[in-house]
C-alpha cells in the first residue's frame, strides 16, 4: 500500500493516514511517499513495516550503523538536520496537544559530538561458540544481538570494552549459563579519561589476579561487582561490592568538583549535561529557599547554590544522596543539604519554597508531587524533562497556577528520538 508520510511520531516513526487513522511506519520520514505493509491493526491506529521508499526526504541518509537490528537509535537513517527538526517538532506537537501551548520555543541546542558522546554503556554478555561476547538486547525483547562496536559510545568505552573482553576470556568467566550462574552484564562509565567497570553477576567470586588485570587496563580507575540474582528492570542488583581502585569517579563542572558512585545517576552526555545545568543556573532567579527534587548527585543544586540562601535536595538513591552531601561539603557549601526519600513526600513537608527544580524520570511528576507543588506554589519552577509527552501533560496539570516563561530543548541523545527540555514556569496567581 502506498502512503504519504505526514508527520513524526514520538518514537521516531513516520506517520501517514489511512481512512483518517494514523499508520505508524518505522524508518519512514515526513514528506516521503512509501510503500508499506500493515502489520498490526488496532482500534484507532495501525503499525506498518516499510517496504520501499518511493519518494525520499532530503533528510534521508544511508545508516552509518552496521547493527540495524539493535533498534537503540531510531534516527540513524536521518541526517543531523532532520534529527534536530524531528526533535523540535515532537516537542511542539506534544506541548500543543497536551498543554494547549502554541507559544515560543527557543532553538534546539545542538550536540557538538553527534557520535561518540555516551559516557556510559550497559552491555549484556553471552557465550557464543565458547567465547564471551558483548551485545545488546533487541529493543523491547530479551533477544541477544552480538555487537562489537557502537557509534554513540565514547571511543574510550569502546577501547576498554574490547580489552575487558580479552581479560574475561582469558579467565574463562562463566556467563549466565545452564545452571543460571555467572556474569550478566558489564557496565562501563567514563568521566575525564577515567574508567569505572561494574561486573553485574549472580553471586560468584572473581579471582584477585583477574581484578588486578582489569585495574591494569589503561585509565581504568575502579572495579565493582553488582550482585544480581533475579531479572529486573534495574540494571544493578541489591548488593554492590567494591573490588579495587578508587571508590568514586570525579567530574568537574565549572568550579565544582563532584564525586560519583556507580549507583548514582548522571546524564549520559557529559558536555550537553553541562550546557543544560548552566541554563538552569542562568534562568533561576535569586531566591531564599530553593528545592531540587530528583537531585541525583546534586549538580544543579550546587551550581545554583550561590543564588539561594538555603538549598534542599531530594533523591531516593542512597549512594547519590551520599555523593550529593559530600559534594556540598567538599565544595564549601554549608547551606546546601540533601535528603534521601520520595520527592513528593519530602517536598510536601518543607515549610517554605521559593523556587523548585525538578528533573523527574521519563514518567514525569507523579500526582502526589503535582498536588504538593500546587499546594506549596513556589514562585518559579525549572522543569528539566527527557520526555516531551509527560512534560506537556504535567504543564497542563499545573496550568491553573503556572504559566510557561521559557522553553529550550537540547539534543543530548543524537541518533535517537529522545529530546531533553528545560521549561521555566512562573506562578501567575498570588499565593493562597
Ligand atoms: C533524570 S534523573 C536526574 C538526576 C539529576 N537531576 C541529574 O541531572 O543528574 C532522575 C533522578 O530522580 C531519582 N528519582 C526517581 N524517582 C524518584 C522519587 N520518586 N523521589 C526521589 N528521587 C527519585 C532517580 O534516582 C534519579 O537520580
Automatic annotation (TrEMBL):
Active site (catalytic residues): 386
Keyword annotations: Methyltransferase, S-adenosyl-L-methionine, Transferase
Top enzyme class: transferase
Molecular function (Gene Ontology), one example: methyltransferase activity
Residues in the signal sequence: none
Superkingdom assignment: Bacteria
Matching SUPFAM superfamilies: Nucleic acid-binding proteins, S-adenosyl-L-methionine-dependent methyltransferases
Chain residues that bind S-adenosyl-L-methionine: 267, 294, 315, 359
Pfam families according to UniProt: tRNA_U5-meth_tr
GO terms classed as biological process: methylation
Domain TRAM: residue ranges: 1-52
Protein's UniProt keywords contain Transferase: yes
Enzyme Commission code: 2.1.1.190
Family: Belongs to the class I-like SAM-binding methyltransferase superfamily. RNA M5U methyltransferase family.
Entry protein name: 23S rRNA (Uracil(1939)-C(5))-methyltransferase RlmD
Gene name tied to this protein: rlmD
Amino acid at each position: 500500500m502506498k502512503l504519504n508520510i505526514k508527520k513524526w511520531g514520538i518514537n521516531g516513526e513516520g506517520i501517514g493516514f489511512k481512512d483518517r487513522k494514523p499508520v505508524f511506519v518505522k524508518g519512514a520520514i515526513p514528506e516521503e511517499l512509501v510503500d508499506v505493509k500493515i502489520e498490526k491493526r488496532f482500534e484507532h491506529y495501525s503499525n506498518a513495516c516499510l517496504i520501499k521508499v518511493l519518494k525520499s526526504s532530503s533528510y534521508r541518509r544511508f545508516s552509518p550503523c552496521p547493527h540495524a537490528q539493535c533498534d537503540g537509535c531510531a534516527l540513524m537513517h536521518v541526517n543531523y538536520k532532520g534529527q534536530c527538526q524531528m526533535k523540535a517538532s515532537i516537542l511542539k506537537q506534544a506541548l500543543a496537544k497536551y498543554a494547549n501551548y502554541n507559544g515560543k520555543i527557543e532553538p534546539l541546542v545542538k550536540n557538538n559530538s553527534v557520535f561518540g558522546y555516551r559516557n556510559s554503556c550497559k552491555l549484556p554478555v553471552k557465550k557464543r561458540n565458547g567465547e564471551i561476547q558483548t551485545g545488546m538486547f533487541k529493543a523491547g525483547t530479551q533477544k541477544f544481538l552480538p555487537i562489537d562496536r557502537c557509534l554513540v559510545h565514547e571511543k574510550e568505552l569502546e577501547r576498554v570494552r574490547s580489552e575487558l573482553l580479552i581479560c574475561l576470556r582469558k579467565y574463562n568467566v562463566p556467563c549466565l549459563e545452564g545452571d543460571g550462574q555467572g556474569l550478566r552484564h558489564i557496565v562501563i562509565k567514563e568521566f575525564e579519561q577515567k574508567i569505572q567497570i561494574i561486573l553485574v553477576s549472580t553471586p560468584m567470586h572473581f579471582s584477585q589476579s583477574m581484578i588486578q588485570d582489569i585495574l591494569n587496563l589503561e585509565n581504568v580507575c575502579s572495579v565493582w561487582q553488582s550482585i544480581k540474582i533475579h531479572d529486573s528492570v534495574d540494571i544493578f542488583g541489591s548488593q554492590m561490592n567494591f573490588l579495587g581502585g578508587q571508590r568514586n569517579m570525579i567530574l568537574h563542572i565549572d568550579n565544582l568538583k563532584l564525586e560519583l558512585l556507580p549507583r548514582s545517576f548522571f546524564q549520559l552526555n557529559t558536555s550537553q549535561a553541562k550546557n543544560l545545568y548552566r541554563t538552569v543556573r542562568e534562568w533561576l532567579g535569586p531566591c531564599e529557599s530553593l528545592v531540587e527534587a530528583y537531585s541525583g548527585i546534586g549538580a544543579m543544586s550546587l551550581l545554583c547554590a550561590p543564588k539561594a540562601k538555603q538549598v534542599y535536595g531530594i533523591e531516593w538513591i542512597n549512594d547519590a544522596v551520599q555523593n550529593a552531601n559530600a559534594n556540598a561539603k567538599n565544595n564549601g557549601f554549608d547551606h546546601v543539604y540533601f535528603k534521601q526519600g520520595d520527592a513528593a513526600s519530602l517536598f510536601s513537608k518543607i515549610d517554605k519554597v521559593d523556587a523548585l527544580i525538578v528533573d523527574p524520570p521519563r514518567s514525569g511528576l507523579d500526582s502526589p508531587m503535582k498536588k504538593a507543588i500546587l499546594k506549596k506554589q513556589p514562585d518559579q519552577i525549572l522543569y528539566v524533562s527527557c520526555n516531551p509527552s509527560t512534560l506537556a501533560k504535567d504543564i497542563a496539570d499545573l496550568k491553573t497556577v503556572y504559566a510557561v516563561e521559557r522553553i529550550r530543548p537540547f539534543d543530548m541523545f543524537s541518533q535517537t528520538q529522545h529530546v531533553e527540555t528545560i521549561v521555566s514556569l512562573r506562578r501567575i496567581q498570588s499565593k493562597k
